[in-house]
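Annex B.
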Amino acid sequence: MPLCAVPGCANPGVHLFPKDPTLKKKWEKAIRRKNFVATQHSRLCRNHFQESDYVGESAYTGHPQICKFLKKGTVPSIFPWSTQVSTTPTSRTSRYMKRSRRILDFIQPSVEESVPEPSSSAEIEISTIEGPIEDFTPKTVSVSTQCGSSFGILSLEAMRGNPQAIHFYTGLEKYEKFMLVLDTLSPMCNNLNYRGSKVINVCIGDQLLITLIKLRRYMPDFELAFLFGISQTTVANIFVTWINFMYEIWSLINIWPSKELVQYYMPESFKRGFPNTRIIVDTTEIPITRPGNPVAQQVTFSSYKHQNTVKAMIGATPGGLISYVSECYGGSVSDRQIIERSKLINMCDSGDSIMADRGFNVQDIFASRDITINIPMFLKGKTQLPGVRIIQDRKLASKRVHIERIIGLAKSYKILKSELSPYHVPLASRILFVCAMACNFRESIMK
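THAP-type domain-containing protein: predicted structure tokens.
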């Protein structure tokens, strides 16, 4: 006897598909089998029909029938995916609160024990508990109070008074700087559309902390899941969601300063030697895992790094502000091709100067806009450069080194130095932009 046509069901089929084309289409649609067309041998078992779908007493004898027959127009309705399970945020939240209360009852010896008063530096409001513990509902809910709800080893509250830990894990100097970054993402971060299911067991502060730790230390998902007491799926869901969210919010900020601001914050050494400098640019490469596609291997292979990479251009003002981050391209792309695809020619004003390395030989692109390119001089067949030009190139190199330091600061986020997994390569442009923006929150480029 043929087996049941429902996917995953191994029972013998009993009921043939109806001959009525309309009713037959309903049966085929109900079993959710892709591109399935029932034949004369296709059958379904009795487990997919309710008792009310069968004919009860015989119309002739008035007694229950020995053989079960389906009523006319019956459609199967019992399937593994038709089980009604509430997935609303309210029900998930209530189940999580019940589990949390059970854990609290287990780890706390008694409810009547005295609770220590919060320190004077904590700017949070803690509501009193009224009634039995089953009816506990905090009257005031904030980011700070919810950050203590996780049961992992690491949390934002645990690092609150430890600036060394904040700097080690996030790259920011102190807890107040971390909260400043979080404030730039508020209140939108309280209503995120997650890539997967909605995250309710990790507070907003800890979600940002997980994202920054992933960028700064590039820990595996398993390690972060162990430290925060959550699943690996939740870690991946948080990271992808927050990278996209931070990029969408911070990309709305115009980080290209006006010419007056660049001149105001320009160091004196630049004002003496290169007063018209608007931006210093250089390219950087991020290693990636070798793609399986031969075409992708060829496009991403860097002859400079001798491995597969993605390449991008970063620009900074003479004062040290990262003011331009390009999209990421395959490692085989040249500096000129990145410049041609960039928006620098429209962003710079007439009379501006761009400081770059020797590889940016793009004077012909910017000449029509009266924008000069400051790069070291080429030999052009000569055996030695003039002494005056050598001194000029040394001065240029001493100023251009600032962009190298800024890129080095950005690469203190280890995700930009480690091989990006195939899962993160599509996010490379956004990851680089978020790391660059995090560097703009730093107080200085060097110690």
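DSSP finds 16 helices and nine strands in the chain. The mean pLDDT is 84. Further annotation is deferred to the next reporting cycle.
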